[in-house]
Amino acid sequence: CDIIGVRSFARFEDREYDYNEVIINQFIEHSGCPVFSMEAATRHPLQSFADLITIEEYKKTARPKVVMTWAPHPRALPQAVPNSFAEWMNATDYEFVITHPEGYELAPEFVGNARVEYDQMKAFEGADFIYAKNWAAYTGDNYGRVLSKDMDWTVSNKHMSVTNNAYFMHCLPVRRNMIVTDSVIEGPQSIVIPEAANREISATVVLKRMIEGLK
Known about the structure:
about 15% strand, amino acid binding, Acetylornithine carbamoyltransferase, ornithine carbamoyltransferase activity, two-stranded parallel sheet, Rossmann fold, Asp_carbamoyltransf_Asp/Orn-bd, alpha/beta, Asp/Orn_carbamoylTrfase_sf
């Protein structure tokens, strides 16, 4: 083959193993051809590329306020999507805020200079984009654990009412009425479908560049 796409997930058994990206790095070392990530233990760059395209398409100001919020889920989900989203948002000039319950702090290298707010409603105030995602705990012995299923963190009309008529985003698939209420995800400010369409665009752009590089 000419190019290999690899998708791997955090096992939540050993944080060092996961964050060293052992699986995808073995492909890079031994495959003998270009490798791209379709998602890995710590990052999901194609998704974050799609997210950035979407925000650029819908933003109404040069420096929008973007809020990434933790939301409840019954299972322990990887940190790849929120890590990547934070990394990409920190590379822009956007005002970027991360909000989550205490105990759900992400790795410092991904949080960067983002403002971390434990009061979700306060974080949402004046936001232009709300990006909802669940992730399992990162820190210490709690790595990979579900510490809370607090439904008060479900994104609802109440939360959206304090924003600047914010657009709602999620990478999909989504646990309805747990991550976000039906009324929000089906509402006029939900842009999850265009966001999903841009996921195809992000992959196409990367593959095109890689194929051109083979010539």
